[in-house]
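Hey, quick one: can you model this chain's 3D structure?
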Amino acid sequence: MTMRNKPGKNNSSAGKLRKRGFSLVEVLVTTAIIVILAAVGIPTLMSMVRGLRTSGDARDLNGSIIQAKMRAASNFVRARLYANLSANTFHIELQANGTNIWSADCTGGTSSCDQLLSNGVTFGYGSLTSPPANTQASLAQATACRDNSNNPIANTACIIFNSRGIPITAGTGTSPVPMNDYALYVTDGYAVTGVTVASTGLSRVWRTEATGANWKQQ
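Sure thing. Here's the predicted structure for all 218 residues.
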C-alpha cells in the first residue's frame, strides 16, 4: 500500500530549503558588499553634487550678467551685476542716465533681489593665480562696486554695462571707458568656476580644479 503524506506536511527537500534562513556567513558577505559599494559610490556622488552646485551658480551668474546687459540696452540705462563677496549674494541694479543713483532691479528692495550662492559655495578662487586663457591680465574678481557718491564699497564686485550693453569701468571722476577683463569666480574648495566678460560683452563660463589652473570652457 502506498504511503501518503499527511495533509499540510511537506517532507520534500524543496520544502526544507524553503524553511531554511540565511547563514551568518551569507549575511556577513552581503553586508561587506554593501559597505564596499557605499565606500566607492558615496565620494563619487558627493563630488557630482559639488560639481553641480558650482556649475549651477556659475550659470546663474552668467544668466544675470546677460540679463543686466540686456536691461541696459533695452532701457537705455546703465546696469550692473552687484556681487556681495562676504554675504555670497548677487543682484542686478540700474542707474538712469543723468543720475548717480543705483537702484535694485526688482520690487521690494535689494534684499528681495538677492540670489544666494549654493550651500558650501563662496565667491573666490582659492590659491589659484592664473586666469583662463585670453581673458584677464591677472586673476581677480571684478572691481569693487561704487556707492551713489562714487566711493568703493568694501567686499563687493561689480560688472557694469553702459546703455549700449558694453562693459565699462566704474569710473573715478572721469568718463567710464570700455572694460575688457571683468570676471567673477566661485569655489567650493574642490573646484573653481568663473564667468569672464570680454570688451564686446561676450560672457563665458570656465571651470578648473582648485589644485591647479587647468581652465576649460563650459
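One thing worth noting: The first helix runs from residue 13 to 19.
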